[in-house]
Amino acid sequence: MIIDTHAHLSDEKFDTDRSIVIERAFNAGVEKIVEISCEPQYWDKALELLKHDNVFVAFGVHPNNVEKVSAEDYKKLELFIQEKKCVAVGEIGLDYHYDPSEQTVVFQKEFFAVQLNLAIKFNKPVVIHSRDANKDIVSILKDFKIIPKGVIHCFSGTPQQAKEFVDLGFLLGIDGPLTYKRSEALKQTVLKAELSSLLVETDCPYLSPQKYRGQRNEPSYVVETLKEIAAIKNIVFEEVLKITTQNALKLFNLEEL
Ligand SMILES: [Zn+2]
User: 195-204 burial by CB neighbour count: b if 16+ within 10 A, else e?
Assistant: First the structure.
């Protein structure tokens, strides 16, 4: 069973053929998809996607959107998180890439903590977005008495940083960029990581694997990342598939649904 644990199918880039893309994924052996809905304007569209049997959703506010969100949106978020098919809170976190000003950082940290508390309150795992911010993410998580389970989405960092997250109970989300030639450091990290700490995700429509580079990414392409992990670790594809799928089922409690 293949699972794409991180898709953005509500994105406008799928407006003309969303159902076809989902069908194509299911026909290609993808059995479950976790839609990540992290902008309030797309929340209703994500709810709509739940009519598909094997599509699940994570609701949250992305760090780059926290400034645009109203108190009313947060009330809505709290309700949406309680949806049966909402399997996580995310993606939430810190992104210092575009605006590392102190004011923005303080704001992002505040709403990261607010949403971590929501995840704890409703006993959901978290999907964490960390860009140029691994150190602060680790220190914020360590401040929590109860640290939720979760995944570091599109992990990029050193084996040491990977270990820090794994020690906190987190999985590492691996995406299409693993298949790029220049991703030597990430390949090293994946080589050193245990399969039991990896999840595969597409982040579609973004981050297309090498084979489809320059094109829109979609859930069926997650197989490219699975193949690359098998090649790096020099183990059979089926083993990578089996363990990463188990990891996903367990983290998001998908078998219960
Ligand atoms: Zn994403």
Answer: bebbbbbbbb
Domain ranges of the chain: 2-256
The 10s digit of each residue's pLDDT in 173-218 is: 999 999 999 999 999 999 999 999 999 999 999 999 999 999 999 9
Distance 36 CA to ligand 1 centre (A): 6
% residues pLDDT > 70 (the chain): 100
Instruction: Tell me the CA–centroid distance for residue 191 and ligand 1, in Å.
Output: 23
Q: What CATH number is given for 2-256 in this structure? A: 3.20.20.140
Over range 120-143, report the average pLDDT: 97
Distance 38 CA to ligand 1 centre (A): 8
Helix, strand, coil shares of the chain, percent, nearest 5, are 50, 20, 30
pTM of the model: 0.96
How many angstroms is it from 37 CA to the middle of ligand 1? 8
> How many A from CA of 231 to the centre of ligand 1?
25
Both structure tokens of 50:
């739940």
pLDDT at 67: 87
